[in-house]
Amino acid sequence: xxxxxxxxxxxxxxxxxxxxxxxxxxxxxxxxxxxxxxxxxxxxxxxxxxxxxxxxxxxxxxxxxxxxxxxxxxxxxxxxxxxxxxxxxxxxxxxxxxxxxxxxxxxxxxxxxxxxxxxxxxxxxxxxxxxxxxxxxxxxxxxxxxxxxxxxxxxxxxxxxxxxxxxxxxxxxxxxxxxxxxxxxxxxxxxxxxxxxxxxxxxxxxxxxxxxxxxxxxxxxxxxxxxxxxxxxxxxxxxxxxxxxxxxxxxxxxxxxxxxxxxxxxxxxxxxxxxxxxxxxxx
Length: 283
Known about the structure:
about 55% helix, mainly alpha, single chain, about 280 residues
C-alpha cells in the first residue's frame, strides 16, 4: 500500500468508524450481557463467560451463557467467591454448548472461581503477568493462559494460547472489552494495559473485510494474521487501533457486507471507495 493509498484508506475507515451505530449494535453482540451489570467485578466475570463461549450463532451461545449466569443468581463475583464444587457440579450436568459438555462448562466456572479466589480478580492476575517490554499483548496472554490452565483442567480450546499460533479470537475479544476506553461498547476497566498493545479479535467477518480493504495479505486466520491486521489499523490510530474492530465486525454481522457479492449493498457501503471487491463488482 502506497502512502497515498494509506491516507485515503485512513480517511475512509475513520469516517466509517465515526458514523457506525455502535450503541444500537451493542444489543446484538455478546458484550450486551456484561453491560447488564454495574459492579466492575461482576462485569469482569460475566464478560469472561460471554467471551469464552462467543462462537457459533449468537442466539445459541447467549442462551447457555444466560443459563450459567442464572445459576449464579446474577451475582457472578459473589458466586465465584463462595463456590462449592460439590454443591454446584450437579447443576451443570444438563448444560451443554455444541461440543462442550456440562462437565466442561463446570470446569470453566471452577477454574474461574479458583482464579478469583486466589488473585482477587482476573484484572489483578493479568496485570501481574503483563510486561511493558513485550512487543504486544501476546506474551502476557500466553503467561495468563498458562496460569489459568494450572488452576484447573479445562478443554484447551476454551482458553487457547497465542503460543500455539492460533488467533485466540475470544481471549483478544475479552481483552478489548476490558482494556479499551469506555466508549459505550467497551468498558475500560483494566487501565494498567495500554490499548495500543492489544491484538484484534479475528472473527470470520473481520478476516473477510480486512482482505477486501487490503489490511492483510495472509490467507490463514492465525495469530500472525491478527497481528498484521492490527499493525495496519495501528497506522490509522497508534494509540487505540482496535477502536475500529466493533464497527468492522458488525458490518458483516448485520449483513451489510454479505459473504455473497451483492451489488446493491456494495453501492451504498461507506467503505466502497477502499474495498477491492466492491469496486470490482460495480464497474
